[in-house]
Amino acid sequence: MTTGIVFDIREFAVHDGPGIRTTVFLKGCPLHCSWCHNPEGQSSVPQVISGAGASRVAGVEYTAQALAAILNRQVAVLQANEGGVTFSGGEPLRQANFVAEVIDLLEEIHILLDTSGYGSESAMNLLLARVSMVFFDLKLIDREAHRHFTGCDNDCILRNLAVLGKSGVPFVVRVPLVPGVTDTDANLAAVAETVRGLTGLLRVDLLPYNKAAGGKYRAAGMEFKPCFDEARPLNINTGIFKKANLEVHVL
Amino acid sequence: MNERIGQMKARVRAGEHRALRRKITVDVLSECEEEGLSWPWRAARLIRRQCEAEQVVIDPREKIVFTRTLPAVIPPIYKPEDWARLTAGRTLHELGPISNICADWGLVLSQGLLGRKSAAMAALQRFAGDKAAVEFLECAVETIDAVLALAARYAVAARRMGRPDLADILERTPAHAPRSFHAALQALRLLHAVVWLGGHYHVGLGRLDQYLWPYLKADLDSGRLDVPAAEELLAEFFIALNKDSDLYPGVQQGDNGQTITLGGVTRAGRDAVNDLTHMVLRVSRDLAMIDPKINLRITPQTDLDLLGLAAELTRKGLGFPQYSNDEVVIPGLVAHGYSLEDARDYAVAACWEFLIPGRGMDVVNIGAVSLPFAVDAGIRGGLAAGAGFDAILKITADDIARQVKILAEAYAQLLLPPAPYYSVLMTGCIERGQDLAQGAVYNNFGIHGAGAANAADALAAVKRLVFDEQRIPPNELLAALDADYAGHAELRRLLADQAPKVGNNDDQADRYLTALFDFLADACEHYGRTNRGGILRPGTGSAMYYVWLVRGHPNMREPVVGATAEGRKKGEMLSANLAPAPGAGVRGPISALQSFAKINYRRVCNGGPITMELSDTVFRDPESIRKVAMLVRAFAQIGCQQLQLNSLNVATLRDAQAHPEQHKNLIVRVWGWSGYFCELGPEYQEHIVARHLYACES
Fold first, then answer.
1. Which one of A208, A224, B459, B505 has the minimum C-beta count within 10 Å?
2. Number of folded domains in chain B?
3. A107, A112, A98, A104: which is closest to A77 by C-alpha?
4. Which chain A residues are closer than 8 Å to B615 by Cβ?
5. Domain span including residue B264
6. Quick one: B349 and B365 in the same domain?
7. Statement to judge: residues B228 and B367 lie in one domain
8. Which of B588, B618, B624 is facing A10, going by the closest CB pair?
9. What is the per-residue pLDDT for A46?
10. Which residue on chain A is closest to B503 by alpha carbon?
11. Would the CB atoms of B630 and A78 count as touching at under 8 Å?
12. Cα A224-A228-A234 angle, rounded to 5 deg
């Protein structure tokens, strides 16, 4: 029996894919992005989140059966409303076997994988065989910059993007716009160049940096040390994508 | 919203019209005493003198007139000592006068007041020998004449001021049936305002998109009016309803019962949605004022375009529309003795209570059963006696029955004062020769079952932690409750965190939610007929009881509960209406809807909405608004009864608490109605800020 660790299950997640969806946030992420707004998703062990006056534990271990049972109780509602289940994180590829087993136990429903792409090719393939759509986060194309801001290089991310592009699974590339880091014309042009021509690409979503990102760190007993200037105005240059004949949305 | 309407709204919000209010006292009492008038005649005389005392106000900028110039105080018609004698040993509902019902506006408009007068004359012939009937009918005619005289004064003034448009309308209506949408709105404005002048309150407007549609349709079909012009008239009517909020009695300002119920089906069961349904939603969205409060009747088949428009109104943060599911409400009403045709014709009273316009003299709110108190009695009684869990449920059920009986017995002595004018506006009072105070077609009472989620959570916690897992010894729980958890922090945390909670679609908690409402329904059924010939309707609302039941209120019949076994300390508020208990961990709206869908609504038909707050960030793009529409549809698909959906931004509310002067127009839903946040008492502000948000930001 496979178990997994989940830091949140959230219903009616309106920005996590089509229709009415429930999102499962898997705990544990290999990346440590400087701008991460879900810091409690980084560590793969449970941790205490202390809010004003109350505290809770983020990170509950589920068996695949138990998680699937919770989700199956609402599949009919999600199905009837053009939606489904999204697996996000953290990084779901890191618990690919668990996620795959949960999906196999679910009734027929639209599944969306929201991933940073960081994981093994076999993990990627394991899940691609089971999902209806992918949100693929693409942050920085420059290998060194990627290492600097996320703690990891992007070799396997770019490789998994290529795997995704060949899989035929429809996907959206999501670029978090972080001031002075990912929103530079050079990076956006490189993103456009990288994704252009990939089969299954529906569009590019640009996600402007939210200044509330740092809010959760203290509650999670962590320190927020952005190595960029939060106040710097964003460069939301959609023109680069339009010029490359790519559909682009700003969320 | 065009410039003229924008300015009109600004003037009303600024309270310019309040300068027209006169500081006078209309003396009705002296003549009542001198002439030795009976109670019905005094009530009729009150309407007569109030109408006469109104000064005509015709603002050249207004197309729909009537501005109240009389103060809030309704002149007394009895000396205090006589009033005390009349009402000795009797129960008055709230302030006394008939309130929180809905007239048959469609009937009155279509017949005109002269049509109602003819009906009264015919009835006078029929009831010639019946002294009481004759007196009632003569009083009814007296009030009709009083309103007609007021309309005539307005007509004369309009003519004199060079307003032939208005004069033409006022010379004809409300005496006769309106010949245009404009005239229908004008007639409704006047007829409705006079109800307030008679001391009645929570004056509902019912199914406005049904009874005004024939007038609008005729205008649109003939080309006399186009949609923008019609919407402008509607906007002006809505603004007028906001003029006197500060004069109306209510627990908090804004609680005034000026509700509209849209959509649904016709009495014959056909889809009732029409162009006016959409127009009301659009105008309400664009105006963003607290009145009128909008209810929308839907089914699982309601189209997403209409629900999307409604979601745009929700986005405004006014706390409406409130939704009710016809597939659940109508069978529930039928199961409680309403005819199918009447059930299909239901509207929503001041907050959420279902009632039939024109036919319902239901007193929909005679108080609340404190479900947390009953459960607390069960837990304490059962554990102290060393009894099993079934005994706890039995004591709980018995206490619910005890509380029901107290409320019902108090209302066995109900005294409704004569209401000759309101009777004119109802279906059949004139025809039966009987004042509304004697009853209408439906004469039921409504009782709220308040604090349901907290109460169910307490039972679930005790079942799991005391009985199943035996992690908490009974005497320790009793000691902790007695000590309000002082020195029992760990135990409290266990109860709060390690037990099933309502709102997660978890049968381990939800079974007690359904059981509690079944107990309430059993108790109401067991009580049987009241001496008004009606029944007790159990409901799922809480009204202000989510505060009162834990903090107390002067002269309240309901018991106050201390610390409870779901880990709630004394004085901490309960959930409002149907919502997970404050602080209970829940995953979001789908599971919450699924939890509350388990209630047996056939047996629980008084109304009381599932209350949900969505972060305002959910509404930022059209796609997400469509998803809100789907969520509302899901509410109906799952089989829930009623839903109140709010859009909230906690940061804005906090800022409004700190800087009220900068947030004068911030509107929030309170329990069954919407009001200006900064005009609410601090305890109500606090509850709104603390309400669980179904967070949707990832």
1. A208
2. 2
3. A107
4. none
5. 3-355
6. no
7. no
8. B588
9. 86
10. A11
11. no
12. 115
B155-191 burial, b at 16+ Cβ within 10 Å, e below that, comes to: bebbeeeebeebbbbbbbbbbbbbbbbbbbbbbbbbb
pLDDT over 60 at A53, yes or no: no
Looking at residue B321, which CATH number applies to its domain?
Answer: 3.20.70.20
Tell me what ipTM this predicted complex has.
0.91
User: Does B186 fall in a domain?
Assistant: yes
Of B585, B594, B631, the CB nearest to A74: B594
pLDDT at B209 over 50: yes
A50 touches chain B (CB under 8 A): no
Measured between alpha carbons, how far is B330 from B340 in angstroms, rounded to an integer? Answer: 8
CB contact under 8 A, B637 and A20: no
Q: Out of A32-41, A193-202, A209-218, B201-210, which region has the weakest mean confidence (pLDDT)?
A: A209-218
CB-based contact A81 B505, cutoff 8 Å: no
Handedness of CA B489, B491, B492, B493 (dihedral sign): positive
Chain B residues 456-515 with a CB less than 8 Å from chain A: 497, 505
In the predicted model, is pLDDT for residue B154 greater than 80? yes
**Given this model, what pLDDT does residue B657 score?**
84
Whether the pLDDT of residue B679 is over 80: the answer is: no
Mean pLDDT of A126-137: 98
Give B449-461 pLDDT, tens digit per residue: 999 999 999 999 9
Which chain B positions have a beta carbon within 8 Å of A15's beta carbon?
Answer: 624, 696-698
- Nearest-Cα distance to chain B for A156, in Å, is 25
Q: Are strands A3-11 and A21-26 parallel, antiparallel or unpaired?
A: antiparallel
Q: How close is the nearest chain A Cα to the Cα of B618, in Å?
A: 7
Pick the residue of B301, B569, B590, B640 with the most A CBs within 10 A to test the interface with A by mutation: B590
Using a CB–CB cutoff of 8 Å, tell me whether A69 touches chain B. no
| Of the residues B308, B332, B355, the one at which a domain ends | B355
Residue A36 CB contacts under 8 Å (≥ 6 apart), including other chains:
A29, A42, A213
Mean per-residue pLDDT for B646-658?
Answer: 80
Which of B323, B339, B355 delimits the end of a domain? B355
Q: Is A88 in contact with B618 (Cβ distance < 8 A)?
A: no
Same domain, B388 and B335: no
CA distance B650 to chain A (A): 14
Provide the terminal-to-terminal Cα distance of chain A, rounded to the nearest Å: 39
Q: What confidence score (pLDDT) does residue B698 get?
A: 31
pTM of the model: 0.93
With a CB-CB cutoff of 8 Å, which residues 351-370 of chain B face chain A?
none
Contacting A residues, span 110-129, partner chain B, CB-CB under 8 Å: none
- What does the pLDDT read at residue B251? 65
Q: Which top CATH class is A3-250?
A: alpha beta
Cis peptide bond prior to B292, omega within 30° of 0: yes
Instruction: Find out whether B668 and B648 touch, Cβ atoms under 8 Å.
Output: yes
CB of B55 within 8 Å of a chain A CB? The answer is no
Option in A11, A14, A16 nearest B590 (CB): A11
Please say if the pLDDT value at position A214 is more than 70: no
B350 touches B257 (CB < 8 A):
yes
pLDDT at B696: 37
Tell me how far apart the alpha carbons of residues B99 and B414 are, in angstroms, rounded to a whole number: 13
